[in-house]
Amino acid sequence: MDIINFNTISDYNNYNNNEVLHPLVSVVDLSKAAPRKQYKMYFNMYCIILKQVKCGDIRYGNNYYDYQDGTLVFFAPGQVAEVTSNEYYQPSGMGLIFHPDLLHHTPLGKHMNDYNFFSYSTNEALHLSEKERKLILDCFAKIDYELQQSIDKHSKTLITSNIELLLNYCTRFYDRQFITRENANKGILEKFEDLLAGYFSSNKPQTIGLPSVAYCAEALHLSANYFGDLIKKETGKSAQEYIQTKLINVAKERIFDIDKSISEVAYELGFKYPQHFTRLFKQKVGISPNEYRTQN
Known about the structure:
Helices cover 48% and strands 15% of the residues. The protein is an alpha+beta fold. This is AraC family transcriptional regulator.
């Protein structure tokens, strides 16, 4: 399957039959696009798409978005997405695309990496209520209004400020989605616990090393960023802190086996160097492993 490269705003607008009003940003009406079917896209820009109707299944990496009517999907520069549909369909909905160059020397540019949802994948798209959808469309309209004006010294500030407002609303809506999917999230938390318990009771620590956030996320079929955000919302701890807490609890039990040295315990847990284990243990518990063994 051929990949369509969207390197510039013009590339994306021309593909969707939309006028280019600004070289670095555009609000795109997808209903103007010609009917199409299966294709792959490479993005060299940020892209936020509000799907109004289901038109194919967006494949991202090796998984599919579970998007419906009124769902936001996000793509960042360097990402490839695939639309799988053997039949021609008429695209519908709105999109906001902006090039990274737009963000240079702006407040948004300084913390663009804080918006983790550009790295979410699989079934992690943002599902909107009707009220939320209208608010997103209002943000699109404000940006589009500014694009219709003559470019002046205020244009960049107003456009990027409205993009930042839009992204902040998306952050709020994702927080709401974490809450509304609380039961599903608790299931993931339980699976995370089981995964760690199984990991430390196997020989994986000696063969693979310490369990990473990326390893756990992949095992649970989630992107690392979504998984990290979910664990933080559910527990108040980062996924890394959660793993370390489990690690220390396992370590406390194994330290009592006096037939093993502290170094042997460290290697069993997946540490390459025993001094790294000692440092982490003392940081978390307040005393060294040897002191813990002696006191208890």
